[in-house]
Amino acid sequence: MSDGLPPASGADGSGAEFPAPEPGSEKSANLRTTEVDLGGLVGVLATHLYSTPLVALRELVQNAHDSHTRRKLEDPEGDYRPLIRVAGDVAARTVAIEDNGAGLTEPEIHAYLATVGTGYTRMLRELTGNQDLIGAFGLGFLSAFSVAEEVTVTTASHREPHLAHTYRSRGGEQYSVEPAAPRPAPGTVVTLRLKPEHAHLADEQALREVLARYCVLLPIAVYVGADEHPVNDVVVPWRQDVPGSPHLHRMRFASAFARSFEPLMAFPVTPVEGRTDAVGLLWVQDGGTYGSTDNRDLAVYLRGMLLADDARDLLPSWAGFIGGVVESTRLTPTASREDLQRDEHYRALQQALTDAIVDGLYETARLHPVAWRRILARHGQELLGAALCDDRLFTLLADDVPVPTSQGELTAGALRAAGSGAVHVALGSGGGFEEMLYRAMQVPIARGDRYAVLPFLRRYAQLRECRIVELGSESGNRELFRAPDAPLPAEEQNWLTAALAEDGEQLVPARFDPAGLPLVLVPDREAELKARIEDDQADARIPTAALRLARAFTARTDGAVKARLYLNLASPAVHDLLAAYRAGHTGSATAAALLRSLKVIMAAASGSANGDLNAALSGISTAVAALTAAVPADGLSAVPDTISAADPADTTQGDEER
Asked: pTM to 2 decimals?
C-alpha cells in the first residue's frame, strides 16, 4: 500500500531525519510551491473567521488604539491628546473610525495593511516588549470586509505628516493606493461602506451600545459621533485610586457593567504572584438559580479590549450565580480573538477566580451580613452544591445555608435541633408518608429529592457527628419503625394481612411514634424505580447510561412488594383491635375495615395510588352504620368506650338485630 510514497521519516523508515534534496537532483525537481487562492482565503478570513459582524468594529478600534501606542513609543516627547472617534451615517450607509495616532507611510500600507498575516504591531511588541499593544496576528483589518462593500483608509504618518495616502479596496483581494489631500494632523480614518444587511451598524446609538462594552477598559477615550463624553468614561475601581469606599465603587461598576442581573455583592480579583497577572471584579448576581442553572457571566479583556464576552468556563462549574470582568496581558487569544487558548495561563486564571469567589464570600459573610443573608436566600440551593465542591465553602456554609424542608427553609442546625439531635431527610419527592408522619410528630424533614440536599446533609452529619435518618431507605425505615417486643402469632398476622393489606402490600408489625397513628403505608422506592425503568417507553425517555445504572441498582428486587404496611403495635386502636379479635368479638372485622379505609385515605393524601379511594370512603360509611346500628334508646352513654370493653353477647345481639 505504500509503494510510490516516501517514508514518514528516514529513507529506510527508521525515524531518522529526512535529508534535504541536493539542488538539481531528481527529488528537488519534484518539490513544488503551495498555491494559495487569495480570493478564497480572504473570503474565509473576512467572512467566516468571526462569529459576529460586530467584531469588525472591535478590530478597527483596536487598530486605532495600537496606532496611538505606536506613536507614543516612536515619539515619546510628542505633545498630543490621543482620541478615537467613531461616526455613523445612516443615509450614506457608512461608519468611519478615526484616530490621531501614528498613521502609515505608503510602504507601510503595502507591507502591513495590504499583506495578510503580517502585522507591524506584533513586530513592535517583540522589539520593545510593550504589553499595551493588542494586535497579534495581522488579520484584524480583514474583518472590515465582513461588513463592508468597500473599505477606504486615508492616513498620514507622524513621520511624514505632510504626505497622506488613500487605500481603497472592494472585497480585500485587490486594492489601490493614491495620494490624498494633506490631513490637519497625523492619523488615520477607516471608512466602511456597509453591506445592506449590516446597514444598522451606521446607527450611532447602536455604535454606543456596542463600543461601550468593547472599549470600557480601553485607556484611550473613544467617542461616538459628535459626543462630548467618551463611551468608556467609567471609573475602573482596580485601576484608579478613588476617594471613598472601595466597596461602593465596586458596586457602581458592577451595576453599570452587569447585563442581566443586578449585583448583590462585588469583590476584587487580584494578581497572584508567579501564577497570573489578572485583575478585575466578580459579583454575585441577583438572578435566582436552582440546582444546575448556569448564569455564569464573565467577560475577559486582553490589554483593555474585550476578547471573550462569554468566558464562563473560566469560572468554577458550581458558580452559576457569579458574574464578572477580568483583564490580563498573559492570556493567549485564538486567531479570531473571540476565545482563549487553554494553556497554563488559562488554568492559572481558573484557579485564581475560584479562590477569589471563595475569599469574596468569606469577606461578605464577615463584613456585610445583610448582603450575606440576601445571597443565602437567593442562591441557597446552588450554594448547597457549591459547598460539596470546595471544602472551604462547606466550612463557611455548613450552618448558614438554608435547606428546603417540610416546614419551609431551615438551616441544617435548625433541622438537627428540631429532630432531637438527628437530621431527618426524605428520599422521595415532596409529600408522601414521610411528610405526613413527621407532620404528626411536628418534626421537619429535609427534601432529599432537591438538588444537593442529601449529600450536603450526609456530610453535615459527619462534620457535626450527629445521626441522619434517611426516610425511604432501609436503614431509615429501621430507625422509624422499631421491631415489636415479640412477633405476632401467625394466625393474627394472616388475619391482619387479609383485613388490612392490598395485593402487593406486605404487613409489617412495628412500634413507632406517634402512638395515635395506627398504621402507615410506605412505598418501596426500589420497586417504584424498577416499574418506571421497565416501562415500554423507558428506553426513549431515559439516557442509556442512566438506564443501565438504574437497572443494575434494582436487579436485587423482583418488584413483588410494592409497599410495606407498618402496623403500630404501640397504638391503642391496634391494641383494642387485636384484643377484640382474640376475644372473638364480631365487631373486629368492622373495626379492621375502618382502619383499612383510613390507610387508603392517608395514602391518597400523601400522593400514593394504593387502594380504591371511593371504596375507602364508602367503607367508612358502612363501618359507621355498623357501629351505630345497635345504639340503645337511652343514647350513646351506654355504648362501651372501646370494642374490647364491650360485652360480646351484646354485640352479637346487635348484629342479629341488623
From this structure: 0.71
